[in-house]
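pasting for ref. prot 1 ->
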Amino acid sequence: MLRRVDGMGSRLVRHRVGGAVAAAQRTICSSKSELLDLAGMVDPILVSKLIEVPNGIPLPAVPTADERAVARRQLGLGEDTLVALYLGELEPRKRPLDAVAAAVQAAGHDVSVVLLIAGAGPLAEDVTAQGGDTVRALGFQREPGRLLTAADVFLMPSEREGLALAMLEAMAHGLAIIASDGPGNPEALGDAGLLHRVGDTDALVAALLRLARDPEERRRLGAAARARVEANFALDRFLADMRSIFNAAIGP
């Protein structure tokens, strides 16, 4: 709400958030960018109550070549096609139309590109209007595992995130990641993927074409993404951090 309202509504939300932080023993932020944002909104005396705990996810097995081939056949996707995946809400802050525009432009070059769009939201009709051979609007997917298995590349063009679980899931599946430099995304990705400026669809097109033409680079980035999740965003680490915070807040 802090990011989506302005004027009197924004002042009211800030006041309520400040009250919540004051009343709590700890306020847990899922990324450093969230912590810094919140620190700038509350009374300085409350900043010590803020603590960062990056999100964590269960680590799936990396899909095998056979599993990937089966998932692609089920979706009617060829082996020589670069399959990009957008997984998330279809709303302006997430900028799904950037992904759509980039895929359409990339398909105009000498590569075969298909963009799978999995999600629902206020921009669903705009996304569906672009549907066709290049863009496939699939609607909300409760179990996106098959899409993550079939894809080569994951797109996260959003203006900002906390620490996006969808991107962590894609990294854990060994996908090459192309993400915007909006707050939260660089923290999750580090140097294990390709970053572009928010809203720079030309850079997004260039990144898609680069990975479409270089399967070895896709494999390298996918392996780096998986290794980063294992090292920094595993569920065991998340649970241990949360347990420590709760024990400290409860006290002896």
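and prot 2 ->
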Amino acid sequence: MPLGGRDAGPETTLVDGKVTENWAEAVRPNTKLFFLESPTNPTLEVVDIAAVAKIANAAGARLVVDNVFATPMQQKPLELGAHVVVYSATKHIDGQGRCLGGVILSDKKWIDENLHDYFRHTGPSLSPFNAWTLLKGLETLPLRVRQQTETAAKIADFLADRPEVSRLIYPGRADHPQADLIKRQMKGGSTLLCFDLKGGKKAAFAFENALKIILISNNLGDSKSLITHPATTTHKSLTDEARAELGIDAGTLRLSVGLEDADDLLNDIEGALKAAG
């Protein structure tokens, strides 16, 4: 489908990415690039990167993967066949809410031919301080992600048994709809989880407002645990129908697990569930 009309820029086609066949069916003679996010925001669906990469190669297109939710610790798209990987380095790479930044990874030839001159002429480069901060963040990335993932798994197991929760999605659990693909593609679960409260928006807001440790924020991958209500924040601009198609309803919450003590977070969540009714 055209993005903003034929004169506004490149044409785009939206597909349900978790169904591999959709990618091949969407290819057109002028297809130049595939773009995907895996796991997705906020419902943590997973796309078969290796399979999509083969389709992209056959079409003569580049595959770009947003790897923020997996982090480079849990998933390596370039090894799975992706041509380009992007990160919001503000998230796990900094992971402490200190600075903004982004990362584009690919082979040197592609970087030299497509990005080098663009950056040179337009100047979208990090400040020296931000670059230093992100490099320091990389030093502790493995330790932070490992601890956050372990705590997220405990919280997911806790929420899965709560009567207030109608749906729990976590890539590290066997009940994830794509558990087999996750085992093949990822080295672990995630620092994030998604769940729906039965009481809808009212319950979700009551839950958030009752939290004492977990902060309300659209950010993720931070050393502090953060929660957001996608329907009124990150995905607010979509129609109700579009959100429903993505699996987002009024009771959906996305939790980014930080480095706080796991028991403290569980107690905080339990108290908020009681407040949400």
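The domain at 20-128 is CATH 3.40.640.10 (Aspartate Aminotransferase; domain 2).
The radius of gyration is 19 Å.
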